[in-house]
Design a protein that fits this description.
Layout: H1 2-24, H2 30-44, H3 46-54, H4 63-87, H5 93-100, H6 103-110, H7 120-137, H8 146-168, H9 174-196, H10 201-206, H11 208-230, H12 235-242, H13 245-255, H14 263-280, H15 283-302
Length: 303
């Protein structure tokens, strides 16, 4: 129960992070905001890195492999975060949260390329999520909003990023890998910002609250909570609870940013969330639940 509550708190932290990202662009351009928040996030992980290093449980592995892992993960993270941040200028935090959440469905689909096994529940979940995306983002003329399209492309990059982390995390400490990829992504974002954006120092000060939440809370606190909680939680439960970040993104957008969701959008969000949840629950759980219910009913009738 404690682990599940910590995961729920993590989902809330990440969900409200979409609100902070949206508010941050009131003062900063997308690439500068991303650059600063990821560098802040990297710094926020230093105490956690020191703790694991002190416990001598920090797996480093081959240094060349670690550098390759950091550059690969950091590059994909840069594209994913950039698409998300730029897309937030043209869509709501609620839409961004739900569409980004599709990466949970996309991961096992892309896993087919790597010959990963994919259950029936994944395909059912994908079908439901696609219907939800239609109601949330597709307009009457069968076009999709620019911001929603960027979020959808970004979801693919988030999925690729997860697969990269999954591959390299077996060779290196996930926390160390995250720290290095945040540095690489942050520096790359700032480099792009210096080329195509104009940033005033005063605006960085004005965006301090959004930067602090996105960097320290979303990255530092959120990642720490996830690591602690996953030690005592079932993997299936972890995926399902963390997927609720999409719901918290919608709640945050409505409560803080005064966003509204029309009935059609609400239906789309509901279907997408249902698809995400179904994709994370193996079919055997439904069968097992049905059998238990049936057995209980038989025993009740006999008594």
């Amino acid at each position: 129960m404690i682990a599940n509550l910590l995961l729920l708190l993590t989902a809330a932290v990440w969900g409200f992070g979409f609100v902070a990202q949206s508010m941050g662009m009131d003062h900063l351009s997308p690439f500068m905001f991303n650059g600063l928040r990821f560098l802040i996030g990297a710094v926020s992980l230093l105490p956690l890195l020191w703790f694991f290093a002190h416990k001598k449980s920090l797996l480093i592995g081959d240094k060349k492999s670690l550098v390759l892992a950091a550059m690969s993960a950091g590059s994909v993270l840069f594209f994913a975060a950039s698409l998300q941040q730029v897309g937030l200028q043209f869509t709501s935090a609620a839409n961004a949260g739900f569409i980004t959440g599709l990466y949970i469905v996309i991961v096992p689909v892309l896993g087919l390329i790597l010959k990963h096994q994919t259950g029936v529940n994944t395909w059912v979940g994908c079908a439901i999520a696609v219907f939800g995306l239609y109601f949330l983002s597709i307009k009457d003329d069968m076009s999709i909003g620019y911001g929603d399209l960027l979020q959808l492309i970004g979801a693919v990059f988030w999925a690729i990023h997860i697969l990269i982390i999954d591959h390299f995390a077996k060779k290196h400490s996930p926390i160390l890998l995250s720290h290095l990829q945040f540095i690489f992504c942050g520096l790359l974002s700032i480099a792009v910002s210096l080329i195509i954006e104009t940033t005033e120092i005063g605006n960085i000060t004005l965006a301090w609250a959004a930067l602090a939440y996105s960097g320290i809370v979303s990255v530092g606190v959120g990642y720490t909570l996830q690591v602690v909680a996953q030690k005592n939680a079932h993997p299936a439960h972890v995926a399902i609870i963390l997927s609720l970040e999409t719901v918290f993104a919608a709640i945050g957008g409505i409560l803080i940013l005064d966003e509204t969701l029309e009935p059609r959008a609400l239906l789309g969000c509901s279907l997408m969330l249902a698809g995400i949840l179904v994709s994370q629950i193996p079919l055997r759980y439904f069968v097992k639940s049905w059998r238990q219910t049936k057995q209980t009913q038989i025993q009740s009738d006999e008594s």
